[in-house]
């Protein structure tokens, strides 16, 4: 249709041009130069109009391609014209609408993916593999590291040198764990990387996930399995010793009494008494070890929680009544603060009281040698999570011991059992929460229970 209209338009214009040329030739032989000049001008105008007629489709095409180049889909081409461009304009508008729709769909998909990536709790960042410049970063990444803005990974060098070094050296397809002291406390981060190319640039997509809770749960489960085996073997080995010691003790006691009533029998009664006393000690320590093992095994087995809604203020009142007399006897200042009276948590009140008692007992031991001993219990809601923090101005925990304090039976105190903190961690794990510690030697320690 377009080609037929174009051919017909050219044919008509060509006939008119030939006619004008014939008339001009006639003017040249019969009339004055004025008519000849006018004829030549008309011929030139016809040639100009014919050239425009032939090239206007090309001009329209060039205008359309220019709009596509600049992604300008707002242009509209007149479809109501009676010229040969009508069908061309319709085709242009159809293509224009298609491009516009594709652009809208792609923009919608981009916004959709952008929203999803912002909502996930996994940190994601895209950086230039050569310069380290940040191309895109989601809010979770900045929230995990506690940075409001990130333009380049080099800006992390002063704050997190270990993480900066990892981000500089990590290769595509690799995953590694990094331990960092974040604003929320000591954490373990899983760092993974994937390379891709975008607009002829090599980019690295880095994923950052806080796996502290997962690692803690795995470690707790591993320790529980080991302790189940250990307690089972200890009880199986110690129980016969305690029973045998009890039998031997009774037998020696009877023999000593019999020989005491028969003075003519030459027996070293002092040796019998020493032996009986030694066996009694063996029996006593064996039974003590059995009780300790049984106690820990029972706690380790406890998986069912008596969950209730607990007002933190009431929980603190109970702890205050229980612990204040002991602390005041040693001159230790003890304060409890709750951000709002209606602050609540969902948990087992008896177990959580046990956790707080364990932490306060440890703090009491840590502040004994301080000039102005102080322990403070604070509860507040941070970032949608209830946090109970116990601060003390004690001697602090050496940095090399911070990784070990939650290991069962590990203790740095000669009178400690090493199960208080591991038990507290286990109870918080049952509540699907975490326990974190921050400490500085000769300054103090803070334990945080995060629900």
What is the average of the pLDDT values? 76
* Helix/strand structural class: alpha+beta
> What string, H for helix and E for strand, traces the elements in order?
HHHEEHHEEEHHEHEEHEEHEE
Helix content: 40-55%
Low-confidence stretches: none
Major beta-sheet overview? 5 strands, antiparallel
Oligomer: single chain
Give me the count of strands: 12
CATH topology description of the largest domain:
Heat Shock Protein 90
User: Number of helical runs?
Assistant: 10
* Overall outline: rod-shaped
* CATH class designation of the largest domain: Alpha Beta
Euclidean distance between termini CA atoms: 75 Å
- What's the Cα radius of gyration? 44 Å
Bin the strand percentage.
15-25%
How many separate domains?
4
Question: Please, what is the CATH homologous superfamily of the largest domain?
Answer: Histidine kinase-like ATPase, C-terminal domain
CATH-level-2 architecture of the largest domain: 2-Layer Sandwich
Order of neighbouring strands in the sheet with most strands: 2-1-5-4-3
What does this structure look like?
The chain is α+β, with helices and mostly antiparallel strands and 451 residues long. The protein has 4 domains: 2-107, no CATH class; 120-210, PAS domain (Beta-Lactamase, 2-Layer Sandwich); 215-301; 308-450, Histidine kinase-like ATPase, C-terminal domain (Heat Shock Protein 90), CATH 3.30.565. The chain has 10 helices and 12 strands. It has helices spanning 2-30, 33-69, 85-119, 139-145, 161-169, 212-260, 269-301, 312-329, 349-367, 420-430; strands at 123-128, 134-137, 175-182, 185-198, 201-210, 308-311, 333-338, 344-347, 374-382, 385-392, 434-440, 444-450. The strands form 3 sheets. The protein has a 5-stranded antiparallel sheet with strand order 2-1-5-4-3, sandwiched between helices. A 5-stranded mixed sheet has the order 7-9-10-12-11, with helices on one face. A hairpin with a 2-residue loop joins strand 4 (185-198) and strand 5 (201-210). The longest helix is centred in the middle third of the chain and has 49 residues, at 212-260. The radius of gyration is 44 Å and the shape is rod-shaped. It starts with a helix and ends with a strand. The mean pLDDT is 76. Pfam families: HATPase_c, PAS_8. This is histidine kinase. It catalyses: ATP + protein L-histidine = ADP + protein N-phospho-L-histidine. Its EC number is 2.7.13.3. The chain crosses the membrane at residues 7-25.
């Amino acid at each position: 249709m377009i080609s037929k209209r174009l051919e017909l338009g050219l044919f008509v214009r060509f006939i008119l041009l030939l006619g004008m040329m014939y008339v001009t030739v006639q003017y040249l032989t019969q009339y004055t130069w004025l008519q000849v000049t006018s004829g030549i001008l008309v011929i030139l105008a016809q040639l100009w109009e014919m050239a425009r007629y032939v090239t206007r489709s090309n001009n329209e095409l060039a205008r359309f391609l220019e709009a596509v180049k600049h992604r300008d889909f707002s242009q509209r081409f007149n479809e109501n014209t009676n010229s040969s461009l009508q069908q061309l304009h319709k085709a242009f508008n159809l293509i224009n609408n298609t491009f516009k729709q594709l652009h809208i769909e792609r923009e919608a998909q981009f916004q959709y993916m952008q929203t999803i990536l912002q909502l996930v709790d996994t940190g994601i960042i895209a950086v230039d593999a050569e310069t380290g410049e940040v191309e895109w970063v989601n809010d979770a990444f900045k929230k995990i590291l506690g940075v409001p803005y990130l333009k380049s990974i080099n800006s992390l060098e002063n704050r997190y040198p270990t993480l900066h070094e990892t981000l500089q050296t990590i290769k595509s397809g690799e995953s590694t764990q990094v331990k960092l002291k974040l604003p929320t406390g000591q954490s373990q981060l899983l760092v993974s990387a994937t390379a891709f190319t975008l607009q002829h640039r090599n980019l690295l997509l880095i994923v950052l996930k806080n796996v502290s809770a997962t690692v803690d749960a795995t470690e707790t489960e591993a320790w529980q399995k080991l302790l189940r085996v250990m307690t089972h073997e200890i009880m199986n080995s110690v129980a016969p010793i305690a029973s045998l010691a009890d039998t031997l003790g009774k037998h020696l006691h009877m023999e000593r009494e019999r020989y005491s009533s028969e003075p003519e029998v030459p027996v070293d009664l002092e040796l019998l008494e020493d032996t009986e006393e030694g066996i009694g000690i063996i029996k006593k320590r064996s039974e003590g070890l059995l009780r300790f093992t049984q106690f820990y095994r029972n706690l380790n087995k406890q998986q069912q929680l008596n969950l209730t809604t607990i007002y933190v203020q009431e929980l603190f009142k109970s702890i205050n009544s229980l612990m204040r007399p002991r602390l005041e006897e040693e001159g230790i200042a003890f304060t409890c603060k709750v951000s709002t009276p209606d602050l609540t948590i969902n948990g087992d009140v008896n177990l959580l009281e046990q956790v707080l008692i364990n932490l306060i007992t440890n703090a009491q031991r840590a502040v004994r040698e301080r000039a102005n001993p102080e322990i403070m219990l604070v509860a507040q809601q941070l970032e949608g999570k209830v946090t109970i923090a116990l601060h003390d101005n004690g001697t602090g925990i050496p940095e090399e011991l911070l990784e070990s304090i939650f290991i069962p039976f590990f203790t740095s105190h000669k009178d400690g059992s090493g199960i208080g903190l591991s038990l507290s961690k286990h109870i918080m794990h049952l509540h699907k929460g975490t326990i974190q510690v921050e400490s500085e030697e000769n300054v103090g320690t803070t334990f945080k229970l995060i629900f």
